[in-house]
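On clarity, I found the account of how folds are encoded harder to follow than it need be. Since the whole study asks how a given chain folds, the encoding of that fold should be made plain. For the editor and my fellow referees, an illustration may be useful. An entry of this sort, consisting of the sequence and the corresponding backbone structure tokens, reads as follows:

:::
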Amino acid sequence: MTREDVLDAIRTMLSEHMSHAHMQGFGPEARLNEDLYLDSVLILQIFLNLELEYGLAMPEEAIARQEIETVADLVSLYVPKPSAAPVPSFPLTGGTTDEGVHGEAYYDIKVHCFVSCVCDGLKRRSLDQRPFYFGVWDAKFTVSDRFQLLYHSPEITQEFFRSWFQRLYGVTVREWYDPRKTKFENLAVLLDLVKNRPDTGSVMVMLDMFHLPERENKFNQNPFPHYLMLQETADPRKWFVHDPDYRWEGEIEREKVIHAIMQPTVGGGYVFDNAEARTPDAEDIKAYFEACFVEDRNPIVDAVRDIIAAHLGGRDGLTLADLAAAVRELPVITIRKYAYEHGFAFFWRALKLPAAEFETWCEEIEALVQSLKGLHYACMKLGQTGDRKQADAVFERLDEADRLERKLKGRLGEVFALWCDRNVAAPVTALKRAAG
């Protein structure tokens, strides 16, 4: 197919097959997220429809590409231009020169909004935030009674992270939001906190990102509960919004922010003072790692395996047609696996291990993330086609993701034990965490 043919096919897919509501600005230069409101799941849906309807097989590596920003980029996946000389990119530094794990700069991974908010103050005080990311790669999620994967639900609280942050860094994180009060009562508390925020203080609130359409939202979930931080500005009609997880800050109309906060889909908030932050003790870091580390299994792989089995088996009336919706939030959980980079980096720097080996493990982390992306695509294909023969490919993806993550955990456990030998007097105990 020519470039124009592929462009027409994508237009047809969106308008006729997917009934996409944001086609006004469609064209080669249209930005997928900002102009067309296409998130990562919808882009995968385009890939799948083009494969099933037009026979345009998507190259495996295309699912992994991060630089797909416009419709033209999407077209180029099928009609590629001559490739330029590759420019190396190093995961931890995010730069084009290898400063290595022992350099000062490193890439700030967006993987968990609560963790990103509390860690923002650590960076401002030149404290190492990396140990706190031990709790992210297997951070809790839930599976509903209809076997749907959920990154956020009423059963999930931030208490694990809140209490450990206080123990590690000495920062009191106080929950100001009271679910027993009305939304308006909680809003009154928030307004007072923002107005009286000290210079070193942070006011965190949960809002529904779906109702801030001017903000980048790579997942475009509806709803999309998300924590960020607020400050007053010189203009009483605007608030300064600081979103460490999405590496964005700027002014937004106060009423728009309040509208997103007042949605019935969300509720939560914390305050803390960055001036309290201190360097964590080695004994506390050891205890936190042990509390976080799920050594003998991979919760997300186990959960997806159960979800697929339930849909294949028709449990409680489920069908394969329900599978795509059941795993829709898998990408939100998948990006948490990048937190392994922070874990490896902390121990590599502390132990002065070879930078080249660190980069090898970063590649293994990337392989895990891409295997989970491929798993998501395979689940969507199984669900949309209803072809039970596709199940074998799905379970192969599951096994591969499980193997890759066990390999990462094996090496991480080894360097943790070595770090303990050098920094902690007490012996290393069995590593267990009640995850799920």
Q: What stands out?
A: The first strand starts at residue 142 and ends at 143. The chain has three domains: 3-78, 128-149+280-423, 172-276. The first helix runs from residue 3 to 17.
